[in-house]
Design goal:
The protein has 320 residues and is mainly beta. It has one domain: YVTN repeat-like/Quinoprotein amine dehydrogenase (Methylamine Dehydrogenase, Chain H), CATH 2.130.10. Helix content is 4%, strand content 53%. The strands form 7 sheets. It has a 4-stranded antiparallel sheet, with no helix packed on it. The two termini are 31 Å apart.
Length: 320
Amino acid sequence: MTNPEIEELQNHFKTHKKTKEYHAHTSKVHSVGWSCDGRRLASGSFDKSVSIYALDRDRLTKEFTFRGHGASVDQLCWHASNPELLSTASGDKTVRIWDVRSQKSAATINTKGENINITWSPDGNSIAVGNKEDLVTFIDTRTHKIKAEEQFKFEVNEISWNKQSNLFFLTNGQGCIHILSYPDLQLQHVLQAHPGTCICIEFDPTGKYFATGSADALVSLWDVSELVCLRTFSRLEWPVRTISFSHDGKLLASASEDLVIDIGAVETGEKVADVPVEAATFTVAWHPRLYLLAYACDDKEKYDRKSDAGSLKVFGFQPD
């Protein structure tokens, strides 16, 4: 990525820096994500519900709310190629698959523990969910049956497949990335990625890179084929909770308890923009076609005013 390209991106965000706020829930939003066609944004909340918004040009409109989980919705993940299907992990020991077209739950899968992380394989055939006891459960999305369970002896944080869906990655409390073959779940590599807990992992849309965020406040960028660390992003000062690549793989957003979301250039690590926030940010998601970044912050109601509880925000609009 050349300097003119980076300048062009920096200039884009000078004119597209408006953030719009939407009151989606009655309590804290844990997870946000865009459907693969970018037409919808979903948010999952501590209030046990999932809100669905429709994007029309530069306006988000709330369409409906999915209810049914008996506890907090901790993470959500859309199908990689079907824009109608969404999966959610909840503390109620279930995984649900929701159909946006019919506006109801398409399947409920009972699991063994309180679920905190979920990922859908890029080929659409499997969902993996991790629980508080570090058990990862693999679900066949065609039969909605559990096809494997793997108990780990260390703290499992985020989980993800590579783009070919034949390798399964997980980040752990010892700062490592474990890479297993899939579907036979044989350990292939352990990468010592960070000195602190490895919290989040994300693959870029091109399939060339993945990034991890850590308690050491660093984001590291990795080459998928060589499994080497190419560079680190070090502008944040608190544990990195959430990361997201832009649709073209040029930008990487990362967020923490810092009062800013960092947007860096993937190829150089340079700062492109930042988004000021008023509280810790635990979820960010780039739109699959546009430079729009959805995010949600910790509740501020504990400190001052009630209005911020349960809201989600989208950065990257042009001022009216």
